[in-house]
Amino acid sequence: xxxxxxxxxxxxxxxxxxxxxxxxxxxxxxxxxxxxxxxxxxxxxxxxxxxxxxxxxxxxxxxxxxxxxxxxxxxxxxxxxxxxxxxxxxxxxxxxxxxxxxxxxxxxxxxxxxxxxxxxxxxxxxxxxxxxxxxxxxxxxxxxxxxxxxxxxx
Length: 154
Fold this sequence. Notes:
The chain is of the alpha+beta class. It contains seven helices and three strands; from the N terminus they run H-H-E-E-H-E-H-H-H-H.
């Protein structure tokens, strides 16, 4: 069951960094007890993450859909600061692919991720993470809109 939860979490992406929340290390706890699933999330921008609620809602919705017989609780923990060491090996490789090895080394040396996202010298040429995520969110919205129009559930 935990493997299925991880698979679901790997399909939910950080709104600003095009890496899934599991491999980025934002999922700090997965607990399954009786008929309850508990997930604790942190965020790269911590309290400054304006889209934290969006991520938490996605996690809750997708887990409730996959496990309808379970109660799902998702806690956004703004007290724990994200650290590169939380990222999985795959997550680090993705960060290196997008921002370069120097950026990952800077994160290891405790530089804030917000500084790296906005620093032009760490951007991959012709890759804009904000534009990428905007396009993905727009695509998901259009898919949902088409589904909604087809099913008219409300």
